[in-house]
């Protein structure tokens, strides 16, 4: 996607693999929007840490990072085939244990593992791992592009769209899920305006989605999370499009960034269509309902403190809450299918109770 740099307008993906040096490269997202930086991760433990500390975040991007990290760990191994698979299990578990809610991580690694099983030597397994990881990443980008193709048809000229958190290209390998229909609409000449929820406490909307929309030249305004209902009631919002970190295939229940459930309830109360955009890797066919989704609770400091630039342009962490208070910090919530108008997928738009049609 487009990034304005000192060298001019450049095209970037969120994450990619340097095969020659066995390095995973990615955009350093915590520094955005104030600084654009590419970082290099030299081994699978560094790659795992990048997921855990949210240097990379977003369902598809986590999935691709897990797939590349698994291939990276495989490529670093030297030894016989029996010991290789023991090493593989260690790499797999290290990556798996970084973030519990987004199912793309496990789906990405399982995709790589299935493709490797036919390998009859260490060298062959390593080759198959890299090829599979690259296919998974490429499919993520293509799925998002197709989400854009289908979702763009829902957007009328002069539409006013609300989105929550960042389900943009930074959350995937390219295009994004919730943003892909917006980018397609813009490129097809439609005039749109986007309300960007700030998305406390990590402010992925204010920091990342707004930055993306600015790169694309899309009119937008950042709003406080609590302001969304105000604009909905005023009829200033025509539709809501959000992403998902895990969608239950059997029911259509959706886990997404904390606050998504609130927006879905408000949208239904105000008669506003509420859409969820997902690639295929976000579907979970194993769990029976959204109540079974593990919800990550993150460091309370994310609520008590904030990062930003001071008047001298220096990046600083400051406390914004009472010094004697504690905080709770669930990272996700679950939106029941009854609040969802439709789910935008690479294969079309479906009602939540129609997702079984997507099962291969």
Please write out the topology.
Layout: E1 2-5, E2 8-11, E3 15-18, E4 23-27, E5 38-41, H1 44-52, H2 59-75, H3 81-96, H4 104-116, H5 122-151, E6 159-163, H6 180-187, E7 192-197, H7 204-216, E8 219-223, H8 228-233, E9 239-242, E10 246-248, E11 254-257, H9 260-269, E12 274-277, E13 283-284, H10 301-304, E14 305-309, E15 315-319, E16 332-335, E17 342-345, E18 348-350
Parallel strand pairs: 6-7, 6-9, 7-8, 9-12, 10-13, 12-17
Antiparallel strand pairs: 1-2, 3-4, 4-5, 10-11, 11-16, 14-15, 17-18
Helix pairs in contact: 1-2, 1-3, 2-3, 2-4, 2-5, 4-5, 5-6
Quick tags:
single chain; 360 residues; alpha/beta; Four Helix Bundle (Hemerythrin (Met), subunit A); Rossmann fold; 2 domains; seven-stranded mixed sheet; four-stranded mixed sheet; 35% helix; globular
Characterization of this structure:
The chain has 360 residues and is α/β, with parallel strands linked by helices. The protein has two domains: 2-145, translation initiation factor eif-2b, domain 1 (Four Helix Bundle (Hemerythrin (Met), subunit A), Up-down Bundle); 149-358, 3-Layer(aba) Sandwich (Rossmann fold), CATH 3.40.50.10470. Helices cover 35% and strands 21% of the residues. The protein has a seven-stranded mixed β-sheet, sandwiched between helices. A four-stranded mixed β-sheet has the order 13-10-11-16, with helices on one face. Strands 3-4-5 form a three-stranded antiparallel β-sheet. α1 packs parallel to α3 and α2 (59-75) packs parallel to α4 (104-116). It is globular and about 65 Å long.
